# Entry
Amino acid sequence: MFNLKKKIRKLIGQKFGASIVFFFFKLTNSIIDPSVRLLLYDIAKKSPNTNKENLSHNILFYRLVTTIPAIIYGLFFGAWSDKL
# Structure
């Protein structure tokens, strides 16, 4: 039983380790991103003194905050998976 667990961990780590994490990142990003964007648009509509330029900066900042860690992670584990 222990040997089977060890083989499964080795297979997942070698073949699918970075792919699984990237898949879950893209899945959650695809679910959350439209919700956040619509929330920001709704806030801009309800508040008459909201600056639309600040809203676009907020959306850009949100995209950077969610994307840059994934890029770093992908670069690191992409190189790591090539070594295996």
